[in-house]
Design goal:
39% of the residues lie in helices and 16% in strands. With 531 residues, the protein is of the alpha/beta class. It has a ten-stranded mixed sheet with strand order 7-8-10-9-11-12-13-14-16-15, with helices on both faces. The protein has a four-stranded mixed sheet with strand order 2-1-6-4. Helix 16 links the parallel strand 13 and strand 14. It is globular.
Length: 531
């Protein structure tokens, strides 16, 4: 593979630096002897002892090592010395639990093919050796690692890493081109119907907390039931709203309140085992990172609530249900509709994991479903629609006629979503699943995967306080503006759904400083084919 010097420098620096991080956890009795960097049919041996000495200022002159390092881009001793002394693991409890999870082990296994310890490409030794070192030290640096490795050589497949970098770059270019193509479509814009814009905070409607005993869990489900106190219209539908992985019902009070204020009864639930308490247990090192193994219990939660509604345990006026969720909550809603996962999932996942395609982090959770048994279901009686915020499932359902469901979908996403990127997930999911003419995708520019989540303190600043402090680089542009737009457009979709009408297609719309687009399958097909 031929590459220019800039890419080689970038990838070598990243490989021996941050890209080596998953392997910077190998405590053994003796130090590793050397790096073997392989690229373009060449193999460059670098003594680890000389590398450390060089970073400390030794061998100023006539060093073959210095020549190789300068050629590869390591011409600053200070930068290398800083890397060697920087802690790789600050929270050893959380590191253990992430590596014990399915996603952590799968990532480790794939990285093992590109950073090889002697001849071991399985990655099996990683967790054991990491835990030994973490038992001895609170913080682990690269210097600690290099002085503890018992392997003779660390082989780095630079060609492989360059291919990974090129894949990432290609995905970014595809996203940029998509936005450019979208902006160029002006003939779809039509005059929008007037709607009453809701204030950001609505105080009139309150909810009732209900404890629902279920057979599949030791503890009862805690539900928020929002029954409108004032109704201009009698709604045909009620809404079951589900948070994503690590999410809580209070993250979506803003949406439940807006829906209820507009006449829709809403039930919001927590999913024990995959809520914020589970995430807190991960951070404190008590439990591993939750994954797709919790989906069967989430599906049982839905079934239990629907049965409670039918029996009158939950008192709601409307008969038909709209399943609504964020991220994993949206995927659970789609699975609950009865659509079957395609039998070629394992083949697709093998290809994507071999390419280490981390530009779509949801692919890891989707591929874990290979090992998860889901109960057969015939769908849900009286299911009117599915609303999915930052939904995903493109690996589960390829584009073919067998997957199509005639349930209206309203999928929302953002152009700054690195967890469930809009092109492959929301847009791809629409093409794969929807046969309903009422289905639409709402695409918000500069919004991220976390934009719909409202957390403490967010009313007074662009980011709020939560288990993690997420900056704008993760949350995306002002989340309150995104939430206001989401509430407005979801209500618009539900209004049309009640009348069996379609939401008009629109591109290049604005609300405040936000730019957004409303697309159907035909327009998405046209845009995807341009790519």
């Amino acid at each position: 593979m031929r590459t220019n010097s800039f890419i080689k420098k970038l990838v070598v620096l990243g490989t021996v630096g941050s890209l080596l991080a998953p392997y910077c956890f190998y405590p053994k009795l003796q130090a590793a002897e050397r790096f073997e960097i392989h690229f373009d049919g060449m193999s460059i041996p670098i003594s680890i002892k000389e590398l450390i000495d060089w970073s400390n200022g030794a061998e100023e002159k006539n060093s073959e090592l210095a020549s190789w390092l300068n050629l590869l881009g390591f011409n600053e001793r200070k930068g290398l010395a800083k890397f060697l002394s920087t802690p790789l693991v600050r929270d050893k409890s959380m590191a253990r639990q992430i590596l014990r999870s399915w996603s952590g082990r799968k990532l480790l296994d794939e990285v093992s093919d590109l950073i090889l310890m002697d001849e071991d490409s399985s990655g099996e030794s990683v967790l054991d050796t990491l835990e030994k070192l973490l038992n001895e030290k609170d913080e682990v640096t690269t210097f600690d690692l290099l002085n503890s490795l018992s392997v003779k050589a660390i082989h780095i497949d630079l060609d492989g890493w360059i291919e990974v970098a090129n894949n990432w770059r290609s995905e970014l270019k595809k996203q940029q081109k998509f936005i450019t193509d979208l902006v160029s479509i002006n003939d779809l814009s039509v005059k929008r119907e007037a709607m009453n814009v809701l204030p950001l905070e609505i105080k009139e409607t309150e909810y009732e907390l209900i404890s629902l005993t279920v057979s599949h869990r030791k503890e009862p489900l805690i539900l928020e039931v929002w029954n409108p106190s004032f109704r201009k219209k009698n709604r045909k539908n009620w809404v079951l709203l589900m948070p994503g992985l690590g999410g809580d019902r209070n993250h979506f009070n803003w949406l439940a309140r807006s829906l209820s204020h507009n006449g829709w009864p809403v039930v919001v639930l927590d999913h024990p085992g995959s809520d914020s308490l589970a995430l807190e247990a991960l951070v404190k090192g008590r439990l591993p990172l939750p994954g797709a193994e919790i989906i069967p219990e989430r599906l049982n939660d839905i079934d239990s609530i629907l049965k409670a509604k039918k029996s009158g345990t939950i008192d709601l006026s409307a008969e038909n249900v709209v399943l609504m969720g964020h991220s994993l909550g949206a995927l659970t809603a789609i699975l609950a509709s009865g659509v079957k996962i395609d039998d070629q999932l394992e083949n697709r996942c093998q290809k994507v994991l071999d390419n280490l395609s981390l530009s779509n982090l949801s692919s890891l959770l989707q591929c874990q479903l290979i090992d998860i048994t889901l109960s057969d279901t015939n769908g849900i009686e009286n299911l009117s629609a599915i609303v999915g915020m930052n939904s995903f499932g493109s690996f589960l359902w390829p584009k073919n006629l067998k997957n199509k469901i005639n349930i209206p979908l309203f999928l929302t996403g953002g152009t700054f979503d690195l967890v469930t990127p809009s092109i492959s997930e929301q847009l791809g999911l629409m093409l794969a699943l929807s046969s309903s003419p009422l289905s639409r995708v709402l695409l918000i520019e500069r919004a991220s995967h976390f934009s719909p989540i409202r957390v403490e303190g967010q009313m007074n600043q662009s980011k709020g306080k939560d288990l993690f402090n997420l900056g704008e680089s993760i949350v995306g542009y002002h989340p309150l503006s995104v939430q206001s737009l989401l509430a407005f457009e979801i209500i618009n979709f539900l209004e049309k759904l009640e009348e069996n009408k379609t939401v008009p297609l629109n591109t290049n719309l604005t609300k405040g400083e936000l730019k957004f687009h409303i697309l159907d399958s035909n327009v998405i097909e046209q845009l995807i084919n341009i790519q």
